[in-house]
């Protein structure tokens, strides 16, 4: 038996909006600690890992680990039927072939009940090791989204270089070049607009802008986004909603000289 | 009980002699291959296997192995030439040793080799490709003679060539090259090359090179290499056949094409050159 009640239903809606742009089908693995999902895009150069913590639900019951194989597009269609303020309850009975979704309005005067057929998905699961990153940049998720959007018009790829002075996003295309430099701000009062950089050694890596833009679909989840980089290591883009959800994207860097 | 299903040419005299399976080195590859001895004749085995998709009904039982073994006579000289070649121990300054047949067919490496001595007229056949000497004791000793081998091979090839059109399988080999637009000279060379390729399936590459040097392939040489390779190499012919088989539409309903979300459609166009798969960074669990 699995049952989870989420008072902030919008969180699940936002997570789905983000993940469905990268992956078609995936398993939601339900366990004691929460609901997790790991999946790669079709080209296997990007990976998304989602954790919905058990603490974020009330109540949360999961007596055994069960994978819920879903078509994310279908699940998203059902979740669209839920209002932003609705409470969402997820339920799977012991047969485990359908996922029941219950949407309750805030005033307890409207109930929506939906059923989603589950499927068997055979997916590889990658073990992601703890990594010591050379540079960790925290910036506003809106700012990161804007940078990716702006530079997408100029080039397919962006080089991100991080030094003590700041982080620079650089795109070189046929029409010209674009450079955006963000300096770390010390002022506390700027709040979510501030940029912080933790650096052990400077890095300069190149990534596909189409993929980065795809990741920014998760921006509504959090005001902040964390970019973790190290040479020859996939970039980690993390959106963290402290209390309940964590969405992490990994993207392989572009290595130019390997032709 | 497990059996094999053979098909074999019906002999002139109906023989009751049982088949004797022996292992001998394949003349071209040197790998141990099974042959059959019956009625003092050496038979080659070809296994026809339909990827285990067939079974045999035998009486009231079913044998799951549905392969069919074809037995066809093979000239024992093909098997013997590489062995004779090793036996004579030819060096740059000596033509090698004369050796009696029973020593040539000694079974040290291949225990079945001595059994070949029962073959019909084996001494006569060996004499075709060897220099022979009669010892005082009356014993005959042999030494392989390269010129005799070449003469024997040329005879074989001209024999096949003269009957080329009576073999459908041979005609098929050169079918797509067989049209009026190709002049006679080229036509002949194509047939010759196809024939050599078939005969040379049975001897070490060295002999193929020697043989090719003897014949003249001027007209063929002028053709594009890629064309001729398709035309004259039986191996290629079979490869093409299998390829054709593979492009047949798969059985069963076609897999439903996954609908991509907007984001995925954009990513499908992304240039991922220089990006390694994540599986190269993270190990599979």
From TrEMBL, chain A:
Residues 127-254 form the Proliferating cell nuclear antigen PCNA C-terminal domain. Residues 1-124 form the Proliferating cell nuclear antigen PCNA N-terminal domain. It is found in: Nucleus. SUPFAM superfamilies: DNA clamp. The keyword Repressor does not apply. Its main location: nucleus. Keywords: DNA replication, DNA-binding, Nucleus. Pfam families: PCNA_C, PCNA_N. The keyword DNA-binding applies. It comes from the Eukaryota. CDD domains: PCNA (cd00577). One of its GO terms (cellular component) is PCNA complex. GO terms for molecular function: DNA binding; DNA polymerase processivity factor activity. GO terms for biological process: leading strand elongation; mismatch repair; regulation of DNA replication; translesion synthesis. PANTHER family: PROLIFERATING CELL NUCLEAR ANTIGEN (PTHR11352:SF0). This protein is an auxiliary protein of DNA polymerase delta and is involved in the control of eukaryotic DNA replication by increasing the polymerase's processivity during elongation of the leading strand. This is DNA sliding clamp PCNA. It comes from Paraglomus brasilianum. The lineage of its organism: Eukaryota, Fungi, Fungi incertae sedis, Mucoromycota, Glomeromycotina.
TrEMBL record, chain B:
It is found in: Nucleus. Keywords: Nucleus. It comes from Paraglomus brasilianum. Residues 78-211 form the Ribonuclease H2 subunit B wHTH domain. This is Ribonuclease H2 subunit B. Pfam families: RNase_H2-Ydr279 (PF09468), Ydr279_N (PF17745). GO terms for biological process: RNA catabolic process. Transmembrane segments: none annotated.
